[in-house]
Design brief:
The structure is a homodimer of 327-residue chains.
Chain A lengths: L1 E2 L10 E2 L10 E10 L1 H10 L4 H15 L11 E10 L12 E4 L8 E3 L12 E10 L5 E3 L6 H8 L3 H9 L5 E5 L4 H12 L4 E6 L2 H10 L4 E4 L5 H8 L3 E6 L7 H6 L1 E9 L6 H10 L5 E4 L7 H11 L1 H11 L2
Parallel strand pairs in A: 9-10, 9-12, 10-11, 12-13, 13-14
Antiparallel strand pairs in A: 1-2, 3-4, 3-7, 4-5, 5-8, 6-7
Helix pairs in contact in A: 4-5, 4-10, 5-11, 6-11, 10-11
Pfam family, one (chains A, B): KDD_N
Protein name (chains A, B): L-erythro-3,5-diaminohexanoate dehydrogenase
């Protein structure tokens, strides 16, 4: 099934993408791939923006690896499609005809393309695509809601682990700082913190422009402008150390600031994929900071439904997302 | 004090190592540096084992940076010495004459050397040294116990965060797996898990030789041999998924196995500095694993005392440590 044997699909060089499914698997008729932003940028830069060459390389990757995983960035993306066949023992609760988005990375989803990506110009992350993908028993897929634009739903589902874990960590009465509070995962996390009963929420953003957006959205009790990579400036911007700090800033070097902004006995949740494990571990030790540091797990049961609910029910979140989609 | 301004000492290029102390600082008369193993190895290999050149480079680093931080590995080490002067507002509870080990990395400890490292041949990690070091208010130092050999105490203090955090995470009745159970942090973590009331402990080791050592030490209910980098083999070796998995294996690629060995709702504690944040975050998401993942914080209040107590009171732990010291 997987090469080399013994490794899990994500670490595998190559997956078996034949269309036949096992008893606990599901086959999806693929409609569109949504390439990871870092992956698309790398490909576009490598080929100097030549869309034909980008398309050829994506086709080559999928053909040779049986999945879409950029060999340089290691990242994949998501896909949407329609459920085609469901094995009798599949635990995913899907039925043929459901229109779904996969919530596990393309890096571990067997995928075959049948149209040569003929409908894609190679110039954007959204890839119209005919072919099939296989979901395992442990995969996760969300049925796309009827009441939301599918681009909006995809953008929300892409980061839905963050609000769910934030909701789990924040206790009623807690103070919460979200670094990158005007972004996708950040705005959802602020809304989740408030819904979980946070007594004080601080949204930290890097610029006055983002501060204006976040103030307008009304998602934080306090909006502060600071460079999250500058620990002293960040701690000053947050003010009194908070019980929970949520890191949603996708730049390296925010670990020390997040630790310093957090009260003794508090928790830092790192959602940014730019987080350095060593910087977090050694930083907390070096600061003698008794904080619990969580690796932001993108999977929390019920995360998709919870994030979609926030977008439906919190106008400020929806406004920020829709503003990004029209950019 | 620090160059560039605004960054914390660990990230700083250069620290101010003048001997004058602030009101909340402490000056230590240094007796010995204990270089980080990775740092010493890099230096020795760079200079082809020429001790004079290694000594010259360490002197140059300390002189130019005001601290011992290997520019290639980024790591430092610890030091031992005697408290020389204590500022009136120091919160560390030290008094002049105390013989102490620093528990924060040398990478953030101002240090000056006055003997040209004349007593060191450049051929080992233990560096006899005259000079001074400065502890900040947020530094951590442990008074060396009278009843333990100082080499043993240093080896224990070097990893004392692991058992303290393990003790905090393990609930009575829990099942616990420790990857690298025969190592320094691993054996202490196994002892801590049992002391916290774990109902079942599994020590995973990479070889039959280590398995024999760990069985002989009697620290785990079950000893399993497996390559922690092979998720399927590791999960099989652990057996029924455990409530808590503690990763003390200092090789990359153990994240997926640790996640797979852990039950839904359980916790993985990553102590290995070889942990990849992205592999942990994407791995859990990809496996749809509802596990809490903790960055192993080297600082937990009371960690030094707790670890020394385990070495004193658990013969199997002491035996493993003393065995390593005589190697």
């Amino acid at each position: 099934m997987v090469t080399p044997a013994g490794v899990l699909p994500q670490a595998a060089e190559r997956l078996d993408a034949r269309p036949e499914i096992g008893a606990d698997e599901v086959r999806i008729a693929v409609e569109r791939l949504n390439l990871d932003a870092a992956s698309f940028r790398q490909l576009a830069e490598k080929h100097g923006g030549d869309g034909d060459k980008v398309r050829a390389e994506v086709l080559e990757i999928i053909g040779s690896r049986g999945k879409m995983q950029n060999p340089v960035t290691g990242s994949g993306g998501m896909l949407i499609g329609t459920v085609d066949e469901v094995g009798p023992d599949s635990p995913l609760g899907l039925k043929p005809g459901d229109r779904v988005a996969t919530l596990v990375s393309l890096t571990l989803t067997p995928l075959a393309v049948t149209d040569g990506l003929a409908g894609w110009d190679g110039r954007g992350e959204q890839v119209p695509c005919a072919g099939h993908a296989i979901l395992f028993a442990r995969s996760v897929a969300a049925v796309l809601p009827d009441d939301l634009d599918s681009r909006l739903a995809l953008a929300v589902l892409d980061v839905c682990g963050a609000p769910a874990l934030t909701a789990r960590v924040v206790r009623p009465g807690a103070s919460v700082a979200v670094l990158g509070g005007a972004g996708k995962s950040g705005s959802l996390s602020l809304a989740a913190a408030r819904r979980s009963g946070a007594a004080r929420t601080v949204g930290v953003v890097p610029s006055e422009a983002e501060a204006a957006l976040l103030r307008d959205a009304g998602l934080a009790d306090h909006v502060a402008v600071a460079d999250a990579r500058d620990p002293v400036a960040l701690a000053a911007a947050v003010g009194e150390p908070v019980d929970v700090t949520v890191v949603c800033v996708d730049v390296p070097g925010c670990e020390h600031g997040a630790i310093l902004a957090t009260a003794a006995g508090g928790t830092v949740v790192f959602f940014s994929m730019a987080t350095s494990f060593a910087a977090a571990a050694l930083g907390a030790e070096g600061l003698a900071a008794d904080v619990t540091m969580l690796v932001g797990n993108g999977y929390v049961p019920g995360h998709a439904e919870y994030a979609l609910e926030l977008v439906r029910e919190v106008p400020g979140v929806r406004k920020l997302f829709e503003g990004r989609l029209t950019l």
